[in-house]
Design goal:
By secondary structure, this protein is an alpha/beta fold. It is 35% helix and 21% strand.
Length: 391
C-alpha cells in the first residue's frame, strides 16, 4: 500500500477496529463494509477492500512487511519508526515505500510478533530478541527507548540451502577460493568465519558444513536456530532465554558442554559471542578436530582480540586464552563487502604464536574485488596446514 493510500485509509481504521471489537467474529470485507456504513462512512468497494487488507495484515503474518519478507533473496527487513522501512535482498539496504500509519501500528506489530515467539514486550520490558515460528530472527525495541520510533529488525532465513556452487554463482567466492575452502573442511582444520553483521557468515558456514563427509556426525549449538546444512547426520541444540519470571534459561555455554557428550565428529557453534568460547576452545583442544563457528569481527586480524576479550570476560586469564587459541584454532575465514556491495570472502588468515607467546592472526590470502587471490605473509603456513602439517 502506497503512502497516499495509507493516508486515505488511516482515518477509517480506528472506526472499523472499534466496531469490530464490539462484535467479535471473522474479519471479512462484508463486516468491514457494514462497520463503515454504521459509522456513517459510506465508501466504495476499493476503500472497503483496502481497509480489510490493512486490518488483515495487522492480525496475520507480519502486517505491511509481508510483501518484503516474500521478496526473492531477502535477508533483512528493518523498520526505523513508521516512515522508514528498509530491505536487503543481497545488495545492501535500500529504502522502500512501505510504511505504517503511526508508531502505534509499529508497536502493535512488534508486540504481536513477540507474542508469537512466546515473549513479553511492553513498557516494563521494552526490547525482545526471539525467533519466530518460521525461523525468522526478530528483534524489537519500543519507543521512547528507541528513536525515531519503535525499531524492528527481521533476519530472514534462507528459503533453500545454499551450497558452495551457489556462492560461486553469486560471486561470494571465486573458483580458487572455493577449492581452498573445500580443502580446509577436508583437512579437518578448526576455523572461525568472521565478519560484520549481515556479511554472510552463517550462509558460508552452512555451505561449508555441506562438504563434511556423510559418515561424520555434526552437533550444532546455536543461540537461535539458523544453520540448515545439507548433511545426513546433523543434530542441533538451541539456547533458551529466561521466561517472564526469570527462570528456565538454557545458555549457550551449557549447550556446548552437553554437545561434547553427544559424540560429535564436528562441533559447530553458530555464533561465538560469550562465555561459550572457553568451552569451545577446550573442546577443540581435546580431540574434537574440525570444529568451527562464526564470530563478529572487523577483520581477520581482530579475531584474536575478540576471542581474548570474550575469554577474559568468562574468567580465563589472558595467557591461558592465548595458549588455548594457539592449540585450538587453525584458520580464520573473513567476509566483507566488495566495492559494489557484494558480500564475499575477502581474507584467509592463519593463527600462530609470537615470541612472547601471544597469538596473532596472520593474513595468508587476500581476495581482490576482481576475485584474484593474492598470497600474504602467512601463505606458507596455510599451505603446511592444508598439506597436513600442523607443527
Amino acid at each position: 500500500m502506497s503512502a497516499a493510500e495509507r493516508l486515505a485509509v488511516a482515518p477509517l481504521l480506528d472506526v472499523v477496529r472499534a466496531r469490530l471489537a464490539d462484535e467479535p467474529g471473522q474479519l471479512t470485507p462484508h463486516r468491514v463494509a457494514v462497520a463503515l456504513r454504521e459509522a456513517g462512512r459510506p465508501v466504495g468497494d476499493a476503500t472497503v477492500l483496502a481497509v480489510h487488507e490493512q486490518l488483515r495484515r495487522e492480525v496475520l503474518g507480519a502486517g505491511p512487511l509481508d510483501p518484503l519478507l516474500r521478496l526473492p533473496g531477502v535477508t533483512d527487513v528493518l523498520v526505523n519508526g513508521p516512515d522508514a522501512v528498509y530491505v536487503d535482498t543481497g545488495d545492501g539496504l535500500r529504502l522502500t515505500e512501505v510504511g505504517f500509519d503511526d508508531d502505534a501500528g509499529v508497536r502493535r506489530l512488534a508486540q504481536r510478533l513477540a507474542a508469537q515467539a512466546g515473549r513479553r514486550l511492553d513498557d516494563a520490558v521494552p526490547y525482545v530478541d526471539a525467533r519466530l515460528p518460521d525461523g525468522t530472527r526478530f528483534h524489537a525495541v519500543l519507543a521512547p527507548v528507541a528513536r525515531p520510533g519503535t525499531l524492528l529488525s527481521l533476519r530472514v532465513p534462507g528459503r533453500r540451502r545454499l551450497d558452495l556452487d551457489d556462492l560461486l554463482a553469486a560471486r561470494a567466492v571465486t573458483p580458487a577460493g572455493a577449492r581452498l575452502l573445500a580443502r580446509v573442511v577436508e583437512r579437518r582444520l578448526a576455523f572461525l568465519v568472521s565478519g560484520g553483521t549481515g556479511s554472510g557468515k552463517t550462509t558460508l558456514l552452512g555451505a561449508l558444513l555441506g562438504l563434511v563427509p556423510g559418515h561424520e556426525r555434526m552437533v550444532l549449538v546455536e543461540d537461535a536456530s539458523e544453520l540448515r546444512p545439507d548433511h545426513p547426520h546433523v543434530v542441533a541444540l538451541e539456547a533458551r532465554p529466561a521466561n517472564v519470571e526469570g527462570a528456565g534459561e538454557v545458555p549457550l555455554r551449557t549447550l556446548v558442554r552437553q554437545a561434547l557428550r553427544m559424540r560429535p565428529d564436528r562441533l559447530v557453534v553458530g555464533e561465538v559471542r560469550g562465555a561459550e568460547v572457553v568451552d569451545l576452545l577446550a573442546a577443540l583442544n581435546t580431540g574434537h578436530e574440525g570444529g568451527c563457528g562464526t564470530l563478529h569481527a572487523n577483520s581477520a586480524s581482530d579475531v584474536v582480540a575478540r576471542v581474548e576479550a570474550l575469554a577474559q570476560a568468562a574468567g580465563l586469564p589472558r595467557e591461558a586464552a592465548h595458549s588455548q587459541m594457539a592449540a585450538a584454532l587453525d584458520v580464520v575465514l573473513h567476509l566483507g563487502r566488495g566495492s559494489d556491495g557484494r558480500r564475499m570472502l575477502t581474507e584467509v588468515a592463519v593463527l600462530g604464536r609470537r615470541d612472547d607467546g601471544l597469538v596473532v592472526a596472520e593474513p595468508a590470502v587476500a581476495v581482490d574485488d576482481d576475485g584474484r587471490l593474492r598470497d600474504r605473509g602467512g601463505a606458507d603456513r596455510l599451505a603446511d596446514l592444508l598439506d597436513g602439517s600442523r607443527s
